[in-house]
Amino acid sequence: MTDERAEGFRPPPYPYDRLRALGELAAQSPGGLVDLSVGTPCDPPPPPVVTALGSSGSERGYPSSVGSPAYRQAAASYLARRFGVAVDPGAVAACVGTKELVASTAWYLRLRRPDRDTVLGPALAYPTYAMGATLAGCRYVGLPPAVDGSLDVRSLPDAEASRALLLWVNSPANPHGALSDLDDLAAWGRDRDVPVVSDECYAEFTWHRPPASVLGRGSQGVLAVHSLSKRSNLAGVRAGFYAGDAELVRYLAQVRTHAGLMVPGPVQAAAVVALGDDEHVELQRRRYRHRLERAVEAFTAAGLDATMPSGGFYLWVAAPSWAVERGRDEGRDGAWVLAEALARSAGVLVSPGEFYGTPGAGFVRVALVVPDQRLEPALERVASADLVGAASRAGIGG
Q: 115 and 259 in one domain?
């Protein structure tokens, strides 16, 4: 008897799993593997934060899903201090890091608005925006970047906007570091009754202008999403928050409470300390800026087109013509050719841009997150590498 059950959802391969062979190749280089493919922070968090993590005494009881009063007040004070925006602590709620929030928000909002079936967001982006739409049973409509890399939503047909549950915004953007006009995007969403959710995890790291939040012109119809992973090097503790439109915050907090989503009590205590301290953020800004500037020098010396991003801590580097041509001959993206050449000649592992959407083909992303003592020798190897020669050997990625 034939099994005629419908085909169910099968998760696609996780993008970074595809880099395994290149990682093994990079590990064979004289300097060993230097992984610049994932934006995992490496620098230490402030010692008082670590102390608070182990001394709160809050591990015995269940934490508040929405966040303790101190947590919500610390987040509101942080937004006022760093971004000049006024948010009532009652319009702030905790999340378990922000990836789970990005992956689940479309699902929760569709329960609220079952008449809408579309998630809008960047076509070149952190892949979880699109995966969140898939998990919610929605369409994902990716908006191509404008010439300057910003998110261009004004050309979207009204018919698409009328189906939208929400618009995801990311500025500075992963992977390319471009900045968008958050005030304009918020106004667009308000005009069309589309909630605008701004992922501001890189907001502290802007290089040519002050940090900005989608809450700059008010909270109606918008949410700002913040993580302590990047700003405070606390990716391992999973702490974040969302703030803005009081009705949206209240709805999401209620649903998430039913789902049992809770930031652990000790983590909340540590986050209060981290959110109250700006000095360590300024130190981290200096670290990332120095690493970016050094990487621009090294990749430029290697004959690559590398420029300082507007924000974030990634370089977005185009595959040179020799890599594009070789890739065309081999039936693969030239970015994979460049990634392989960097792994083979310098022991450096980078991410092909296609991981972040179709517009990323032909680019690689370089995450400047490893300690300086590991990064500097790797950049020296990049600067002196014979990338063309390394690419002339048999290809293994793509």
A: yes
